[in-house]
Records
---
Amino acid sequence: MRPKAVAEGVCQVSLRGVNVFLIEAGGGLVLVDTGLRNSPPRITESIYSLGHLPQDVAAIVVTHAHRDHVGGLAEMVRRTGAEVWMHPDDAALVRAGVWGRPLGPGRGRTRDALRRAMNALPEARHEPVAVVHELGDGDELPFDGLRALHTPGHTAGHLALLLPRGGGLLFVGDAASNMVHTGLSFVYEDLDEGRRSLEKLAALEFEAACFAHGRPIRKQASRRFRDLMTRLDAADAKAAGRAAAGAGPDAAAAADDSGER
Ligand SMILES: [Zn+2]
Ligand SMILES: [Zn+2]
């Protein structure tokens, strides 16, 4: 199946529950994230359908070290020969073959149940992968001005990426999701830090946004991020008001669940 075009030279490959992206840049391809362990055949098929060969992939940029983003990494490195780019904090996990860190307390009952389930997963290790290039906040990659934005919270070494093309295209990773609505991701190592990272993204100007989980936004995407911050702040104020009125933490949690939309 041909991947879905999101913007000029940018395609979304929709895998089971997670998206990865192929960017045509500098005559080759940049792959953003690698999906799950069983994703490489599908990603490879997408590369061919764009008229490219696996060895045309010049770089694999990984947003963070969760298993739905690095599961296919070792195999995609073998298939493409490309070098891996990551933030050092999450690169340390990939080099050690460790799946992520424990997740912090979530706000809202749904998120907290998911966090507990994920933290209880057996700690299986994965094949360690060499990360050749470490990216810090604001670092530019040699691919059409693609820039790394350190956006910790979901994980300590989470990166979003900004491509200065067509008014700006943000690769959000798991800094936010766009399932039913643009909202927080389901789990965070540190939710407060994740909120600060989202605020940083909302202050930028970009026309389109691509999410690892959910549909892309093609127009006026940065405005949607600013609207989200307004909604989250309003939900916080409402929850704080209820808690102060003595309704208890359950009411605050319920208000936060509804605030995700
Ligand atoms: Zn994640
Ligand atoms: Zn994810």
---
Amino acid sequence: MTNKIEYVRFLNQDEISRYLQNKKATYIQKKIEVNIAIQQNDILLIKEYEKFEIEIIEKYENNLKEFRRNEALWKDKKCKCGVKLRFYTRSNFWGCPDYTNLEEEHITFKEDKQQKEKFDYDFSNVKVRLDKDWCSIIIKRLGLITKVTAKELLLFYQSIGFDDLREKYDYKSTLTTISTYEYANKKSKKEEEIVRDFLSKNFRVLSQPYVEYKFVDQQKKICIPDLIVSNNDQVFIIEIKTHNFYINEEQLQLYYNLISHCQAISNDRRNLYSIFVVNEIFESEYTNENAILINDLVKLKSKQEIIEFLQQNKFQ
Ligand SMILES: [Zn+2]
């Protein structure tokens, strides 16, 4: 680690309350400012929405036209240049006899059955396309990135009766997509309780401590590890995620360095480990070194078994 730690300390209950109040106040203040910016730019934002929708429809119509044009050429067995296509038996495709004439644009088709399948597939892909972050695109175009957030903008559009464009063109609603990450985080709270309750039968468990830390020449920051589990010989930092997809190795590395620093200061010589505990693991990414499953953990019977299991599956 290149950054040198200046200090690490655990916040007490009063400090945590104050920190949370501040954070909430900042959040509310930010939301107010965003909405003021939206009101100040409402006409621009409405125009850009309308422009954006026209653009995605134009793109769709062009794609559809292009698709129909090619399909008609195929049916007539005609090249883009107007010459009658020829079937090349040896290579199994339709091509233009005049393909060496580079002044014109030409086309080729696969053998009829394959080409038909390709058209069917391509047609299923001809649709109005728009990214899930279409609101961010609008914000960026208007140079409002630092002032307006996608979520508030979407709520604004809906409040004046405009559609969520994703929903309108048969995608999942934009808000659902924006909230997926928040939801994944929320859900891990329940998992955290299961792990905490299980481990507190045999260990001292510190749940979600607010840890303030500062690197030399940097601003102080606060982080919140999920669980710090300890007994007389070991300390385990446990980070709980719904899914190994959300594993953040840098984050756990940071917790390890901070707790390790605290131990050094207080001359605490217990062995330190960091472990990821997850509810689910993508099978394709299954690696036992990276994470343990909650189900595997909670079926362990003895304290010694748990310690060994955690040690064997440590991240660090
Ligand atoms: Zn041609």
---
Amino acid sequence: MQNPYLPYPVRIDEITTETEDKNLKTFKLVFINPEDEEKFNYQAGQFAELSVAGKGEIPIGIASSPTEKGFLMFTVNKVGLVTSYLHNMKAGDIMGVRGPLGNWYPLGYHGRQEYCHHRRRVCFYDTSVLHYIYAGSCQPTKI
Ligand SMILES: Cc1cc2nc3c(=O)[nH]c(=O)nc-3n(C[C@H](O)[C@H](O)[C@H](O)COP(=O)(O)OP(=O)(O)OC[C@H]3O[C@@H](n4cnc5c(N)ncnc54)[C@H](O)[C@@H]3O)c2cc1C
């Protein structure tokens, strides 16, 4: 069994600056060992611990959808020590991802309708959930 405290090594593939003040960035991460992607079997709504060597670990919602293969995405607001260090990292740098952790949304057909109907504001997890919903054959009718 995989030790749940050991992070999977990942490479930063791409960094997107999301806001004019540059305090919000999305990190696209690729597993260094392709077999680790199989083990990191996540659901929309879960989070992971991002680890930056020598700085620490931070819980961040998974912004990519399980239907998107070959990478993970995380949108990170710069607030303190680890997030500031992460914001200074570059494409090609190596870091760690531990998880997936936490619960997920029940997204059967009725779950999707409920989710879209009741969600009042978009947060980072929602990009994962919305990508997942729109990748499905059966789309919600109420948004
Ligand atoms: C389950 C979960 C999911 C999350 N998902 C996301 C996500 O998707 N995206 C995201 O951006 N965040 C997310 N967060 C929040 C994120 O984990 C924290 O913002 C992150 O851990 C902060 O780490 P840090 O080392 O940068 O901040 P720290 O250095 O630990 O600082 C923590 C807080 O203290 C404040 N602080 C730090 N230093 C000072 C100082 N000198 N003076 C005054 N205040 C100070 C910071 O503003 C910050 O609010 C999530 C949290 C949880 C629990």
---
Amino acid sequence: MPRTLSDMAVEVLTTAEGRQKTALSRRHAAAWFAARRGDAAAIEIGRADPPLHPARPAAPQLLSPRDVPRRRPGSPAGRIALLHAVAHIELNAVDLHWDIIARFAEIPMPMGFYDDWVKAADEESKHFNLMCDCLEELGSHYGALPAHAGMWRAAEDTAEDIMGRLAVVPMVLEARGLDVTPGMIDVFRKAGLTSPVAALETIYAEEVSHVAYGSKWFHFLCGRHELDPKEVFHTLVRRYFHSTLKPPFNEEKRAEAGLPPDFYWPLTENEADANPA
Ligand SMILES: [Fe+2]
Ligand SMILES: [Fe+2]
């Protein structure tokens, strides 16, 4: 049994197989919360060296986004491809949440920071398992199709900047999930597939809190360093996120997660267009 939370994080990050990774992640989360409730000995945050890239299973094959074949979402193959893409996102999200814990362990943070990311990692683990169950119900499985190779880029780009990490991962990438998930739920509802609808509704409900954790701890660090949150957010997203943000936005869920419109709307244009000389 690893002794510190950082050791637990590294153990998850270095486990390759998806279901094994998520089972371990859920066990470590349960152990952490048992200790936090006082039902077990306290667990230190500790220090450990997370790998630059988490371990990945032999399949799926990872391709550059432009080489991942597109399928019509209205077809059975398209629906399987959609679930497969979400499973891949969830598996990366498990690693992203454990990575922020181990990567920045030398920065003193309140215990609530660790509680939030352990809870998020636990939920992503559940989400991955739900997507795998749905794929298997439709006669497929995670690994049957190629997947995007670029998902860890945001983690690499922000490996030395905790505020950049919070800005790009929960507040840009996970917030994007809030924008697109209702449309995905519709695809499966129209096809009369109840398991994916239920699974995606669980994911949709729980992802709001992941974005909210990002916003909460981003604002916390801005307060610590006496920085203007909106300005720093714009600077960091422009530095680390290699694209503009794409509307339409789910303004209601973003607001619920603590992301006001003046954080994301200015990032729909690049700086040169926004500030013409
Ligand atoms: Fe998720
Ligand atoms: Fe998430």
